[in-house]
Amino acid sequence: MHQHEVIINKIAQDKIDFELGTKLILENEEYNFEILFVTLKKNIFNSIPDKTDYNTKTYQNAINTIPLKPTYTPIVILKNFSTKIAFNKLATLPKNENTKTIISLLWIFKATDTERRNTECKNGCGHFWHENLNPI
Ligand SMILES: [Zn+2]
Prior knowledge:
The protein has 136 residues and is mostly helical. The protein is built from eight helices and no strands. Helix 3 runs parallel beside helix 7. InterPro entries: DUF5958. Pfam families: DUF5958 (PF19383).
């Protein structure tokens, strides 16, 4: 696993504080929006059980509790468009929205992954990132 993936999963599994983990991601010298966006999108979509609309109560609850101003563009997009369309729009936003997008996606993944760990993964799963997270 790449370092950013380890940190993303540590945030999701509450093994690192959300704010601290987000800082580690955003201030990493290898920070790359495109790579982070693709990774988080894949992780979020994989963790949502509904593969048709990629929408669940947990997902809705997550986008309604993102710890940023609700008037920020990425949040407005997430709230007003279906999941797949919203993610397509997020990918094309101007650069100055990138940080807000990454924070939003980290928050959503923490919620959807936590639900998955508490349901589907509860009695053991083959996801190596759920069973063995190497220290950073
Ligand atoms: Zn799992």
